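Re: beginner question about structure tokens

> Can someone show what the tokenized structure looks like for a real chain? I only ever see the sequence side.

Sure, here's an example I had lying around. Input first:
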Amino acid sequence: MTAASDEFSPPKHDQLEYFIERARVARPIRTAVIHPVEANSLEGAIQAGEEGLIEPILIGPEHRIRDAAAKLNLDLSRYPVINVEHSHQAAEMACEIVRCGEAEALMKGSLSTSEVLHAALHKKFGLRTERRLSHLFVFDIPNYHKPLIITDAAINIAPDLMAKKDIVQNAIDFCHAIGNTTPKIAILSGSAIPSWITMCTPSVMSSCIFRP
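And the corresponding structure tokens:
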């Protein structure tokens, strides 16, 4: 999937910086930061807060968060800290405050992705909707003239047709959110079989599903 429209004009280079600047001029998003107990996750959240991109809510063992802040000489006085003992509890608490409307986004800190997904996809206490959850990458490729979005390359291993529909719609919604009202979409397959050959490769199901 590529992102392009007449009203959406990222530069040919430094495209990610373009998105950051667009976010900077918009209002900051109240963000639940899950288990930011080491340098990269905590410093990234605080830097985003200082730049007006997010309003971080730090969730995790408070003593570890403050120890990490002290080592980095970071001032946490502007940001709320919710004390929970373990990383999985931090993920569950983050989902709860998003579900209650006290935050609008999740930010992964120093914990496994599986812990975040387990909390987010919990049938009763998670953030499930009627649509399949999916992941996307945004690439700034030096020799390509516009941003390139690839989805899903992380969560859905073998999606069926309805899951693919959700994945595409999620990507469209994302493009709309960043200002691209008419994204161009291309369906990709892992098969290298030329399009004029009608046979499919059973081990690469996408080559069968999208075969004319």
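Each token stands for a local structural state, so reading them left to right follows the chain. Helices lie at 15-25, 39-50, 62-72, 87-99, 113-120, 161-177, 206-209.
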